Predict the 3D structure of the following.
Amino acid sequence: MLGAIAGDIIGSVYEFNNIKTTDFPLFSRKSRFTDDSVLTIALADSLINSIPYIDKIKEYYHLYPDAGYGGRFRQWAGSDDNRPYNSYGNGSAMRVSPAGWAYSSLDVVLIEAERSAMITHNHPEGIKGAQSVAAAIYLARTGSSKQQIKEYIEKKFFYNLSERLDDIRPHYRFNETCQGSVPQSIIAFLESDSYEDTIRKAVSIGGDSDTIACIAGGIAEAFYKFIPDVIVEHSMNILDSRLRNMVIMFREKYIL
């Protein structure tokens, strides 16, 4: 989960200032956590304390109302209406990493990923995006190879993961849909050789940089089982005490 949060923080500077290179500073004074981190931690809180996803999602929205949410989510989260709004945006995929860590069965991971998506993203593509990311994290942390992860995701979810970043990067533009950002995020992980390399490759695609790095970073943490200390320290220091403590609690319960 921390891998997803660090990806969000690193990518935050480049979301509306895209770069098409892997050569960039990982952190700056403008680095911040966004809605990706807030909602990821909301799901972690839900799992730790056995509180419904929807309750924690709305609670964290009110705790952090200026984290950069999309317009439809903001309208939903600020209302008393709990009905989902048929979204296929990548919000379901960016927040799902805790589900990939918290369960010992892939079948249960897929069920929980769907449940976490359905509260807002009940469109089939929104559900698919969340399930594919959670499944990749589960497979990565339980010893599957990159080829096995690639084959499973392609067969189960029909994403094309055979494109190369060098072919994607020149024409890729901002795309907040699951189908337009989740495959690219997974490819960034598949082409990487470390956690940091994953994040650099994810940001270099351009587009919705914080979310792409968040998704890719969550999978990379599970696969490489190591995040450089400097990235951990900077990311944890950028979080406030509430968010930081929840990350620590989740890691102690499910990861460490």
Remarks:
- The chain has a mean pLDDT of 97.
- The CA atoms of residues 94 and 215 lie 5 Å apart.
- The longest helix spans residues 124-141.
- The chain has 15 helices and no strands.
